Amino acid sequence: MGPSVDFLGRDVVSARDFKRDQYDEMLRAVEDLEKSRESLDGTLKGKLAALLFFEPSTRTYSSFQIAAEKLGMRVSGFAGPTGSSITKGETLHDTVRMFEGYGADVFIIRHSKMGAARFAAEISDVPVVSAGDGSREHPTQAMVDLYAIKKAFGRIDGLKVGMLGDLRYGRTSSSLAYALSNFDVEITFIAPEALQMRPEVSHFLTQRGVTPRTAGAFKDVAGSLDVLYVTRIQKERIPDPTEYEKVKGMYEVNLEALRDAKPSLKVLHPLPRVDELSTDIDETNYAQYFVQAAGGLPLRMALLNLILGGAR
């Protein structure tokens, strides 16, 4: 595992930018790391990771921070706008330029504005990794999700994947859909009309040879799915508060809802959850979301190692 023509020095701003062989390489790199948990410790010693989180985060920030530190990197930046010069009106452009001047070797950026990570990549001479970009993209979460699916089934091809919840405003579901378009899968978008997947995502999938199906309720497809990807309603991204009031609490996945599901069904959720995923599933064989979350650390370690040309 190490220098890669496909990853060395590249930006990670959209799940659309990667092809099947690159996702396969990424998944193999994580599998190798999990077989030898300390194999990458210290491989990027002396390099500097700038974590610029203009939005709050728990799992993504912590996993990137710990990943960078285990690789031997120094970490600088901020975990939210409070306490940074963002509160004084400093722009993304100036923040990136400042940290580049401090010697950053990679930027890891979360921002509320769509396209922020790509803009940062255009003005920076070092790799930029999106850690969440408005309501459109979260490419490393998609990689984490692919790994969780592969870990559960030993494969991704041939599976039937349902995505349930806020598909319109949720960036994790759209990024996962983009990534899954590289595999031989059947995708079903499960949501009320107000929360259904955005047309451009469905159009992209169709162009890639994956024609998504739609369903208004989970019960309509419960017995056919291998994977159920659940997302919360994105209250902070819905532009109209009255629209949120109409859709909040519209769905919940619990043991009763899974009554007709395959025994082998795996439930994923990018977390945090609110009331859309019941805790009564936590101790069942359906639950894959804690395994999914734990995979964020080795995946982001492997990814940074590939991008920055760490040791094999």
List the helices and strands and how they pair.
Elements: H1 20-35, E1 48-53, H2 59-70, E2 74-78, H3 92-101, E3 106-111, H4 116-123, E4 128-133, H5 139-153, E5 160-164, H6 171-180, E6 186-190, H7 199-207, E7 213-215, E8 227-230, H8 241-247, E9 266-268, H9 289-294, H10 296-307
Parallel strand pairs: 1-2, 1-3, 3-4, 5-6, 5-8, 6-7, 8-9
Helix pairs in contact: 1-5, 1-10, 2-10, 3-4, 5-6
How would you characterize the overall build of this protein?
The protein is of the alpha/beta class and 312 residues long. The chain has helices at 20-35, 59-70, 92-101, 116-123, 139-153, 171-180, 199-207, 241-247, 289-294, 296-307, and strands at residues 48-53, 74-78, 106-111, 128-133, 160-164, 186-190, 213-215, 227-230, 266-268. Strand 1, helix 2 and strand 2 form a beta-alpha-beta unit. The protein is globular and about 55 Å long.
The level-1 CATH class of the largest domain: Alpha Beta
What CATH architecture of the largest domain would you give?
Answer: 3-Layer(aba) Sandwich
Q: How would you state the average pLDDT, rounded?
A: 90
The span between the termini is 4 Å
CATH H level of the largest domain: which superfamily?
Aspartate/ornithine carbamoyltransferase
Q: Label the overall shape.
A: globular
How many distinct helices? 10
H-E order: HEHEHEHEHEHEHEEHEHH
Largest sheet: 5 strands, parallel
CATH topology annotation of the largest domain: Rossmann fold
Q: Helicity level, as a percent range?
A: 25-40%
